[in-house]
Amino acid sequence: MGLAATEAELRDRASRFIKAELKRSKMTYADLAERLKQHGLPDESETTIKAKLKRGSFAATFLLATLAALELEGVRLEDL
């Protein structure tokens, strides 16, 4: 059994995971943009983050920096 049946499902799951973690940490998109600057992504803004999460596709660098910005110690694939 794989992580997702389709690429679209994988995009949706990754996007929903990040949105849920933002909500859980009570962080806004603007807050995330500020934190991403500290993790090497100075050009991210509330608008670009919303767009990426809406379409569900983004670079691995964005994902990794976002996980660091959210201060997540570990992510299990089954959490996606």
Radius of gyration: 12 Å
Gross geometry = globular
Continuous helix count = 4
Distance between the termini: 14 Å
Helix proportion range: 55-70%
Quaternary structure classification: single chain
The number of domains is 1
Q: Describe the sheet with the most strands.
A: none
Q: Low-confidence parts, pLDDT < 50 over ≥5 residues?
A: none
Indicate the proportion of strand residues.
Answer: under 5%
* Overall mean pLDDT: 92
What would your notes on this structure say?
This protein has 80 residues and is mostly helical. The chain has one domain (7-71). It is 59% helix and 0% strand. It has four helices and no strands. It has helices at 7-24, 29-37, 46-55, 60-69. Helix 1 (7-24) packs across helix 3 and helix 2 crosses helix 3. The radius of gyration is 12 Å and the shape is globular. The two termini are 14 Å apart. The model has no long low-confidence stretch (mean pLDDT 92).
How is the secondary structure organized here?
Layout (H helix, E strand, L loop, with lengths): L6 H18 L4 H9 L8 H10 L4 H10 L11
In short:
It contains four helices and no strands. With 80 residues, it is an all-alpha fold.
Can you tag this structure with a few keywords?
globular, 4 helices, mainly alpha, single chain, 0% strand, 80 residues
